Amino acid sequence: MLAPISWRTPPRHYGPWEQVTSLLTEALIARGVDVTLFATLDSQTAGKLGGVCPAPYSEDASIDAKVWEILHVAHVFERASAFDLIHNQADFVPLAFSRLVKTPVVTTIHGFSSERILPAFKAYEDRVHFVAISDADRRSDLRYAATIHHGIRPEDFPFEPRGGEDLLFFGRIHPDKGAVEAITTANRSGRRLIMAGIVQDQEYYHARVAPAIDNRSLVYLGPVGGEARVRALGSARALLHLINFDEPFGLSVVEALACGTPVIANDRGSMRELIDHGVTGFLVNNVDEAVEAVGRIGEIDRAACRDAVTARFSVDRMADRYLELYRSLLA
Prior knowledge:
It is a single chain. By secondary structure, the chain is of the alpha/beta class. The chain folds into two domains: 16-151 and 314-330, Glycogen Phosphorylase B (Rossmann fold, 3-Layer(aba) Sandwich); 154-312, Rossmann fold. The protein contains eleven helices and twelve strands. The chain has a six-stranded parallel beta sheet with strand order 9-8-7-10-11-12, with helices on both faces. Helix 1 (16-30) packs across helix 11 (315-330) and helix 7 (251-258) crosses helix 10.
């Protein structure tokens, strides 16, 4: 299992790709699969840990991302003959190594950061078995082996039947994620907004978000993990996910639903695959509709939100789907 090295696996707070990689790795190990996790050397796994990079480059400025990514990927492919299969969770760089080995390679595409990286995927579609994380993120001109939604451990997100009165923004502070739209919606709804997540766009944060933080109507928690993450997700009246891009999946959406917290999301990308409109939340197209949805959030049964996750987005379901794919490829 080839993890990214931007963050530790599993991450301390932010790191969705690393989080999914860890969840799948541990679920496979629990099923008796012999897995070696290649990740940063401070990573944690119940299986074997391999790697060369001492720390995540997003946490340690002394780690040059380009240098250590190449060393990290090469370290795996130089040992390819020791494995039945290589599962790449680390984007497009490993694709360039795939024709140098005989070992089958599966690549989970966690989204396309730019149109400019598409030629790399297209060049290796006849060699690497691509997995989409949602139907919405599939490219019509790219060959796929499967669509497999991410899964979480529902037991890690206890059901909160009542929730609270505050709205929640949980994600990167970046225009794509709709932080300003969440602030506007909360203000117009007369509700306090709790924000959590890393600042990915400093200029956007300082110009559009920071001036609104007053620790009364708007509280910014910064990046949160562990119990603080679960507490924030479960204590909200609703999660505002007013994205301005086509979200490939949206892990925080599923985590919020697992806690019983409904989600109000812009109807883009994978949101229709995660949210049942009027049942587990509301799909909207603008701030006006989001404000209206906040007023209707009491119509949502929080137990239905939880049930949807346990039925469709559990880590067991994800692991079973991947095992099915592995076996079909190896057969």
